[in-house]
Amino acid sequence: MTIAAGMDRALSLARLHLGRTAPNPAVGAVLVKDGRVIGEGSHAGPGLPHAEAAALDDARARGFDPRGSTLFVTLEPCCHEGSGKRTPPCAQRLIREGVTEVYAAVPDPNPRVRGRGMSLLAEAGVRVHWGPHSDEGRELIADFAAWVEETRPLFTLKWAQSLDARIAGGASRWITGEDARLKAHELRAGHDTVAVGAGTLRADNPRLTVRDGSAARPRRLVFAGATPLPEMADLFNDDDRALTWVLARRGSVLEQSRRLVGAQALEWNGEAATLGPLLLEAGFRRVLVEGGTKLIDWFLNAGLWDRAAVFVAPRLLGSGVAGPGAALASPLDLMSVRTSSVGVDALIEGWNPRSPAVRGVGVESEAVCSPV
Ligand SMILES: NC(=O)c1ccc[n+]([C@@H]2O[C@H](COP(=O)([O-])OP(=O)(O)OC[C@H]3O[C@@H](n4cnc5c(N)ncnc54)[C@H](OP(=O)(O)O)[C@@H]3O)[C@@H](O)[C@H]2O)c1
After folding, report:
1. Alpha carbon nearest to ligand 1 atom 34, residue
2. For ligand 1, is residue 249 a contact (CB within 6 Å)?
3. Whose CB among 24, 77, 313, 371 lies 3.0–4.6 Å from 91's, allowing a Cys bridge?
4. How does pLDDT run across 39-96, given as a tens digit for each residue?
5. Whole-structure pTM value
6. In whole angstroms, what is the distance from residue 274 CA to residue 38 CA?
């Protein structure tokens, strides 16, 4: 097995639980000995074994001795104990079990780890390396980085636009084709929440569910404004209505929201500084903001976003609702950009260079470890 293939497998294992491990990050681990996989593991949620421990247990259950094996893990092994932590530290166990080499895709942004896990391993004689596939590893822990660095959930901004940068208009409700819409459902499945502004709720009556056969059931979050919400909207009446949350300012719309969704109506004063802590407190970790223009512009102008996923359809609408970004104060180049074809449409994905996920969390620790 190659080094790249080992980490690929660890990334796939981590993705099995993406969006469902909060407040912990999704992590995957693979143990390889004499060129073959002897154990695999992933972290499935708080209180459950860490991926490294699960891989070691798996190896033992399959009758393998982990001594002399190499570990591929998507996040640096932890090395701390105590204060609310429910699982024993992994770095110490890897040393005890005789693992001789560790590849970790990214450092743990938790201030109690941040390179110390790898240093501990290196001091015990384990050969340690950062990477490969650091980009993919970073994607997996982006929500965790936003939480520990900026006390807020991860925000992904997603919209679909025409070549003339409109997000609505023309005869059809849809801008993009069927393939892009399926891809958008995949994106929803990787988040615990799908959010829209009240304008979109009024215009489209969206359901915001995942329709690709996945088990994911993200929360639906409405940003209410000054106008009363449409009470007949599907979000307040369909089978998933228990998943609907509303943010509203104090006043008649908040009172109406409380009638519609009870305690899931949260009072928010409209300020960027209070949004993150408020959402974290209510259990939101990965929020996909699906529009429309006014809401996405608010996130762009507040600088409160991590990644963008923009579908561009090969069509000109000529008239309609202008897309996000027109009111941005200064230009911005996205980082780690990926462009792909989805049916006839293009999907451009990239990171906000100011997101804690790409700011090089913990890079100061890389010097202690040899590069791959
Ligand atoms: N192509 C796409 O990807 C896509 C996706 C979604 C929507 N759309 C289209 O976009 C259009 C709606 O967009 P829109 O810009 O009019 O509305 P919007 O962004 O969906 O909603 C804006 C409204 O949300 C409320 N709001 C609460 N907090 C806000 C905040 N912090 N920032 C901004 N708004 C906040 C306000 O409601 P009040 O008005 O009550 O004060 C505001 O007017 C529709 O035509 C829809 O079809 C397209």
Report:
1. 295
2. no
3. 77
4. 999 999 888 999 999 999 999 999 999 999 999 999 999 998 766 666 779 999 999 9
5. 0.85
6. 47
